[in-house]
């Protein structure tokens, strides 16, 4: 046993020695084979190109917003602030910090990933920024170390610091300390105060994480890091405690976007950047990485969206007015058109993907599906009188039809065409309010949108994004197949290698026969009901649903052909403000401007495409009329009159068309 332990010990020493020798030889080979490229050629040729699905260019990221300055023209306190933030011993330590590398290695092993934590000196950061791609691999890290060592042997510390300060990315499209000074403070680097220098030194670590213009959380993080930088300057005796106590926290300028993002295109590019961030591509990487981003957007569809909004949307709308459109290919989830607003330079809030507003009667199909799944047919007969009062957990819930319209006894098919509120509330109750919520989730309304199983759920009191509703109606158009919406089709690296490839993520959410009956019902909306404006001259089968909320505060048209599902929504900043009167229409409903925009978009986008028919209705539950007049009990009708006076009258659901 003793001999065995001894042999194992000797073998261990031998193996360790062999491993060490191989590592040294490998590093030596890499040292003599890795050269320092030309920094200027890298910096000036790494714009990221964003393309349509067919390869035509949408726009670019990473224009050379850079002004090179000599180190002598960069104040000493600016240099010291950067060193306090990134490498306090820059002038005294080696280009590579063994302690920093050990710490980074420990953190990486602890997390189980190569996450790039810590370990980088200013020289290493310059090597990575100016000469290498941002990939996180062992090979890239070794190259970074070798280039850093070679830079130290070939350049003075002052030269390295000067190059670093002219190369590093500060966010907002700015490279180098001079441009960052202008972008964040509107002044030359030579005029920066100590406080302002500490702000820029804090931001460069991760602009998307610290730039205060993005979020309140960023502002809080930036202030904490600013204090860290100031404390570092005190610790290195570059700043006295007395002078530090006199400093005031500076205010940065508002973020102004590049002219390349002007108009509707800016919303497309910003959303692409947003989605790429979720895939691990940072803003700094996109600004310098030389990527080619191929999207799912079809140029014909995108042009159609802009033309439709410009041509059929309301004129002279107030600044508080917003219009958005999302079009999705059913069954795949590919976003083929996205209109987030008129001008990204005016407001950066994307109306298609970020804004929320009440959905109105666009939610009624969820109640229809829940009913069909319970065997309740389109031929079921309901009471369409208005008003009616229902029980909402012990409280009276009055429901009115649009204009207090009286329909009497009609079937669900006709109730859908004319959007009868007093039928859809009991329909949802009878089908099961939890079932209505479940249907909405399966269709594509994400968990981030609050849905409550109350009687009002069928009338669309929830506030989804435009993309959420487009996704749900795409599920209907795909005969019940839900596909996660996506816009990034492919990401190519600077060497044209594929770094990411988008994949269709689809699953069957509903039975095709249920979807066939739903589509048949929604066809009635465009042929005989509230969505007639959407069908004019389209020349192909369409199905859809209008949606208008209380007091006409938001208006929708959600519709689809076999090929595309498209949602158009219009709303104001203040959800309590009515759209009435905008564009000359007194009653601004989903059947007016939203349906008109949808109509023009579809005609342009599908011009030249053959007309494709929807499946025939399955007639779930039979074709004979079945009475549901007493399916859900109502409260004393006289109670309704009490809700027609005063402030409560304004809250009635008469406008939910």
Descriptive notes:
The structure is a single chain. With 657 residues, this protein is α+β, with helices and mostly antiparallel strands. Among the domains are: 1-33; 64-245, Penicillin binding protein transpeptidase fold, CATH 1.10.3810.10. Strands 2-1-3-11-12 form a five-stranded mixed sheet. Strands 5-4-16-15-14 form a five-stranded antiparallel sheet, sandwiched between helices. A hairpin with a 2-residue loop joins strand 7 (388-392) and strand 8. The chain is elongated and about 90 Å long. 47% of the residues are buried. The model is unreliable at 7-17, 19-35, 39-45, 108-118 and 644-657 (pLDDT under 50).
CATH architecture label name of the domain at 64-245: Orthogonal Bundle
Low-confidence stretches: 7-17, 19-35, 39-45, 108-118, 644-657
- As a percent range, the share of strand residues is 5-15%
Profile the largest sheet.
Answer: 5 strands, mixed
What is the strand arrangement across the widest sheet? 2-1-3-11-12
- For the record, the CATH class of the domain at 64-245 is Mainly Alpha
**CATH superfamily membership of the domain at 64-245:** Biosynthetic peptidoglycan transglycosylase-like
Query: Using only CA atoms, what is the Rg?
Result: 31 Å
Shape: elongated
Instruction: Give the overall average pLDDT.
Output: 86
From the helix content, strand content and strand pairing, which structural class follows?
alpha+beta
How much helicity do the residues have? 40-55%
CATH fold node name of the domain at 64-245: Penicillin binding protein transpeptidase fold
* Total DSSP helices: 25
Report the count of strand segments: 17
Terminal residue distance: 88 Å
Transmembrane segments: 12-32
Organism: freshwater metagenome
Protein name: peptidoglycan glycosyltransferase
Pfam families: Transgly, Transpeptidase
């Amino acid at each position: 046993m003793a001999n065995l332990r001894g042999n194992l010990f000797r073998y261990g020493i031998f193996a360790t020695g062999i491993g060490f020798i191989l590592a040294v030889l490998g590093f030596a080979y890499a040292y003599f084979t890795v050269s320092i490229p030309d920094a200027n050629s890298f910096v000036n040729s790494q714009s990221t190109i964003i393309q349509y699905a067919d390869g035509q260019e949408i726009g670019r990221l990473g224009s050379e917003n850079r002004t090179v300055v000599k180190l002598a023209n960069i104040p000493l306190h600016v240099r010291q602030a950067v060193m306090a933030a990134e490498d306090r011993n820059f002038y005294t330590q080696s280009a590579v910090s063994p302690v920093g590398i050990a710490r980074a290695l420990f953190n990486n092993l602890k997390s189980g990933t190569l996450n790039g934590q810590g370990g980088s000196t200013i020289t290493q950061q310059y090597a990575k920024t100016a000469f290498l791609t941002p990939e996180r691999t062992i090979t890239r890290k070794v190259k970074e170390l070798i280039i850093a060592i070679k830079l130290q042997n070939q350049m003075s510390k002052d030269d390295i610091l000067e190059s670093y300060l002219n190369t590093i990315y500060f966010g907002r499209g700015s490279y180098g300390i001079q441009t960052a000074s202008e972008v964040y403070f509107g002044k030359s680097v030579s005029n920066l105060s100590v406080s302002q220098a500490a702000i820029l030194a804090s931001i460069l670590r991760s602009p998307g994480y610290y730039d205060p213009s993005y979020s309140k959380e960023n502002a809080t993080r930036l202030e904490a890091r600013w204090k860290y930088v100031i404390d570092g300057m005190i610790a290195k005796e570059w700043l006295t405690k007395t002078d530090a106590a006199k400093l005031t926290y500076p205010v940065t300028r508002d973020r102004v976007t590049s002219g390349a993002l002007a108009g509707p295109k800016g919303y497309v590019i910003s959303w692409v950047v947003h989605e790429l961030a979720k895939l691990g591509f940072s803003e700094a990487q996109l600004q310098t990485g030389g990527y080619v981003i191929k999207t799912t957007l079809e140029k014909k569809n995108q042009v159609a969206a802009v033309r439709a909004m410009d041509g059929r949307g309301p004129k002279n709308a107030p600044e508080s007015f917003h219009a958005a459109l999302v079009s999705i290919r059913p069954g795949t989830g590919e976003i083929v058109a996205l209109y987030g607003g008129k001008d990204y330079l005016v407001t950066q809030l994307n109306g298609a993907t970020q804004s929320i507003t009440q959905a109105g009667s666009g939610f009624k199909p969820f109640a229809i599906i829940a009913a069909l799944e319970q065997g309740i047919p389109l031929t079921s007969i309901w009471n369409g009188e208005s008003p009616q009062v229902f029980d909402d957990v012990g409280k009276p819930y009055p429901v009115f039809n649009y204009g207090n319209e009286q329909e009497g006894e009609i079937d669900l098919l006709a109730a859908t065409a004319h959007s009868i509120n007093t039928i859809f509330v009991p329909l949802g109750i009878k089908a099961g309010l939890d079932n209505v919520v479940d249907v909405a989730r399966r269709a594509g309304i994400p968990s981030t949108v609050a849905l409550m199983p109350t009687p009002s759920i069928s009338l669309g009191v929830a506030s989804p994004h435009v993309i959420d509703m487009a996704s749900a109606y795409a599920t209907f158009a795909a005969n019940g197949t839900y596909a996660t919406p996506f816009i990034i089709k492919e990401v190519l690296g600077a060497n044209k290698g594929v770094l990411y490839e988008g994949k269709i993520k689809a699953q069957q959410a509903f039975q095709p026969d249920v979807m066939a009956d739903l589509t048949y019902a929604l066809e009635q909306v465009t042929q005989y009901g509230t969505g007639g404006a959407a069908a004019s001259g389209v020349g192909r089968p369409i199905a859809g649903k209008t949606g208008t909320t209380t007091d006409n505060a938001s208006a929708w048209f959600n519709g689809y052909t076999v090929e595309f599902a498209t949602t158009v929504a219009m709303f104001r900043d203040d959800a309590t403000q009515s759209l009435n009167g905008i564009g000359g229409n007194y009653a601004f409903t989903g059947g007016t401007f939203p349906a008109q925009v949808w109509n023009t978009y579809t005609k342009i986008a599908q011009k030249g495409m053959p007309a494709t028919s929807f499946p025939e209705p399955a007639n779930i539950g039979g074709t004979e009329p079945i009475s549901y007049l007493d399916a859900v009990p109502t409260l004393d009708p006289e109670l309704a009159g009490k809700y027609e006076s005063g402030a409560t009258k304004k809250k009635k659901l008469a406008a939910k068309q």
